[in-house]
Amino acid sequence: xxxxxxxxxxxREGWLSLILLVVMLLSLAWAVQAAGxxxxxxxLVPVALLAALxxxxxxxxxxxxxxxxxxxxxxxxxxxxxxxxxxxxxxxxQLGRLFALRDDLLxxxxxxxxxxxxxxxxxxxxxx
Length: 128
Description:
Largest sheet: none
């Protein structure tokens, strides 16, 4: 296995693939913002950049895929709760944001099953 410095200077995937991934993520985030599907979507660009950075850093570590996938899933969930909860519930603590998002998701599911058209926007934001 190459050293950390070698993996950082010459990753197997190449730096061009990371640059192209960032361009695609930014294009998607800006397109969703321009569509105006959500009232508050300013979190999309920073989350996309954090995801690309976290993925690049995890890719150059010597950890196996069995470890990097759960780490990235946990990190992604924390960033989502922090960013979307901060957009929709800025007055609450992090734990309060988590519970508020959970309550929104449950009421969204109930409304979806009853009427077919839920009005809560936070589950859409989590999905995006």
